[in-house]
Specification:
It contains twelve helices and no strands. The chain has about 220 residues and is mainly alpha-helical. The protein folds into two domains: about 100 residues, Helix-hairpin-Helix base-excision DNA repair enzymes (C-terminal) (Endonuclease Iii, domain 2, Orthogonal Bundle); about 100 residues, Hypothetical protein, domain 2 (Endonuclease III, domain 1, Orthogonal Bundle), CATH 1.10.340.30. α2 runs antiparallel to α8 and α5 crosses α6. The radius of gyration is 19 Å and the shape is elongated. The two termini are about 30 Å apart.
Length: about 220
């Protein structure tokens, strides 16, 4: 099976198994989703969603966040960890949006990457979920599952992103990555993947190798 055929099989499985797969960060406003994505580094999406409630009650938009006091933002985002760095980048991000982009979240990879604290993962999330552009959000679930399925054998997120872009229809990238997250949490876990319960086991290299190893014991 070619990598492209394998990717088509995975996509078809996800469409059956997770037809409503969507971003687990609940913010839909472009700026708020950008902030939530920044807060999600080394933090669960569930915790970020909780923290975003008081955060956006206090600073609801770009202008308010640009004028925020660092110490006050730090106190609110503290539960997300790395609170000093995250608070700094959120305020700096808001200021750059005000000064460079007239308060609007940009819609190009190049411009998004200029924002403090924004890397390719966050930029791809914004491009896909907000602007409907082709994207691949190469997070830890995407990288891990892509390796196990034989779609990409790299731990490098940029390589994973570029490889999957070649294998998938552009319009399916956002859905595919959200489904990867759901599957990673439900079944294809980092430490103890539940291969026996996985519908992709018949064409999963990791599952087949684990099965062969078990039979040889």
């Amino acid at each position: 099976m070619t990598a492209k055929a394998r990717a088509a099989e995975v996509l078809a499985f996800f469409q059956r198994q997770y037809p409503d797969a969507d971003c687990s960060l609940t913010q839909t406003d472009p700026f708020r989703l950008l902030v939530a994505a920044r807060l999600s580094a080394q933090c669960t999406d569930a915790r970020v969603n909780e923290v975003c409630i008081p955060l956006f009650e206090r600073w609801p938009d770009v202008q308010a966040m640009a004028e925020a006091e660092l110490a006050e933002v730090e106190q609110v985002v503290r539960p997300c960890g790395l609170y000093h760095t995250k608070a700094q980048s959120i305020i700096a991000m808001a200021n750059m949006l005000q000064e460079r982009f007239h308060g609007r979240v940009p819609d190009t990879m190049e411009e998004l990457l200029e924002l403090p604290g924004v890397g390719r993962k966050i930029a791809n999330l914004i491009l896909g979920d907000v602007y409907g552009q082709p994207c691949i959000v190469a997070d830890t679930h995407c990288i891990r599952i892509s390796k196990r399925l034989g779609l990409c054998n790299s731990d490098n997120p940029v390589i994973t992103e570029k490889t999957l872009r070649k294998l998938l229809p552009g319009e399916e990238g956002s859905f595919f990555c959200h489904a990867m997250v759901e599957h990673g949490r439900a079944c294809c876990k980092a430490r103890k993947p539940e291969c026996e319960a996985c519908g992709m086991a018949p064409f999963c290299r990791y599952a087949q190798a684990a099965k062969k190893e078990s039979l040889n014991k």
